[in-house]
Design goal:
263 residues; alpha/beta; five-stranded mixed β-sheet; two-stranded parallel sheet; 4 helices; 7 strands; 13% strand
Length: 263
Amino acid sequence: MKTPTNRLRATGFTLIELLVVIAIIAILAGMLLPALAKAKGKAHAVKCLNSQKQMALAFLVYASDHDDRYIAGTFAANAPLMTAPDVWFKLLLPYVGNNTNIYKCPGHFDGGTFYPNLPYPVDYVVNSHIIRPSARALRTTQIDTPTDYLVTTEDSRQMNNFNWSVSDWNWIRINSWNQGNAALYGVGLTRHNAGAQVALADGHTEFLKMPPRLTTGAMLADFGPIGDCKIGTPVWNPPTQPKVFLRLTSAGDAIGGNVNLGF
């Protein structure tokens, strides 16, 4: 009987082979994880836009039920966030199927906690010149071109103010944008791919690329695609024509703090 010159190799991996496999897996993971993170970010952005579209359309349905007037009520800030029944997100709730999750952006990156006076997380703010914290509701017919005016955009659930007038935007421009966002105001305006998700008065939504955030402490010159007003003297004046606006005119309200004016 002949003795085989080669013995069958024992089953299993050698240590060297195992290390090679681990190294290959690590390389593949390093290549795939950024792509997965990017895909996840895009999914968050799409869901965020969809939520804002539902809110924008809900504002229009509300108006059709209320003599063509937009929501108007208590200023959505501080203690009234919990106690007042007529802050905008509570009045809108029946028109979004009583689903409070619609007010949460899946891409929020400023922690899971929220402002203690909020009844539930809210990651969106409204344009106070349209959705007014006032007894004087704006009629839909007062808006000259609904495609031009911002109704909602994003911010932090940790802050205390969810009604923004031009003066609030200006505060962010001066005190928050390039100051490291310690105050959290405006942090959501670059939540998705360094840009802002917005809903417009006609019900459509858009992504707007925003100016970069710096840590120089310098005042931001302007909000790029988001302008103050079409007519009059804007509080900030971009070098190019803005894509959307917060109000029609600055007449009678140079600093943009009077929510009963602007249209």
